[in-house]
Every structure is written in structure tokens, then in C-alpha cells.
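Q: Could you predict the 3D structure of DUF456 domain-containing protein?
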Amino acid sequence: MDLILLLIGFLCMLAGIAGSFLPAIPGLPLSWFGLVLLYATNTVPTNYWILGITLIITVIISVLDYFIPAQGAKKFGGSSYGIWGTNIGLIIGLLSPLPFGFLTGAFVGALIGELVFDATNHKRALRAATGSFIGFLASTFIQFFVCCLFLGLFISIVWQNKAGLFL
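A: Sure. Here are the predicted C-alpha cells for DUF456 domain-containing protein:
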């Protein structure tokens, strides 16, 4: 049973890293759940300090994930249309055959969203789309970085308790 929990927890970690790029998957909460599954095993002693601190980090960054792209768009004069366009473009870009479709899709989606909001001012739309895109990149990088830290913590804990997990 411990091995199954370990494997599911590890898969949650990997899905969390992928979720830091994909808007439909809650990346950081999924990575945190992988840590919870690790501590649910009988061979790893529960450390409430690690779980509590990582939960606080998860909640703070998950909340900031909604504000960072909006602040990037607002700083560059954008609207909510640009933010919605970024998310829609990201999903379409992920489905495209382009190598970096999620990046180009996010930017093009933000630009189209801003042009829908105000089709007369192309310069403002380009500036706002840039702000939405920069906010999206910052938020994505923060989530990816913390998910990788959680994965490192997961691997470190497994490594320290390796004898008990595989017996």
C-alpha cells in the first residue's frame, strides 16, 4: 500500500509541474497533495511543520496566481478581456502543433482580447497584451519553481526513508 501511495504521490508531483503551465490543472495544490500522500504512508513519519509550511506557501501562491497576470495587464493598461484572451490563447496554443504554442497562443490571445475590448487603439492593445503576457509568465515561473521545490522535497524525503518504503 505504501508503494502505491508513493507512486500516486509522485504522479501528483509530475502533474503539478505540468499544471504550472496548464490553466486547467491546479499545479501547486496537486503537488502539495503529492506531499500529503507521501506522509500518508506508514514508513514516513508525519511532519506537520513541513505540511503546514508548504500548505501556507501553496495557498499564498495560488491566490497570487490570480492577481499577478491581472496586475501585469493593469500596469500596462490592459483589461479583463486581455486576461481572458491570455487564458483562451494558452489553451488553444497548447493544442497547436507549434513548438512553443502555449507561449505564442497566450500572447496572441491577449492581443485579440484587447482588440475585442478596444479595436481602435492598436498600440494600447499591444502594450496591454504584453503586460498580460508578462504577468502570465511571472505567475507560471513562480508556480513552476515552487512545484520543482516540492518535488525536490518529495525526493529528499523518499531518499531518507528508502529502506522502509520498498520493503
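Q: Anything worth pointing out?
A: The chain has a mean pLDDT of 84.
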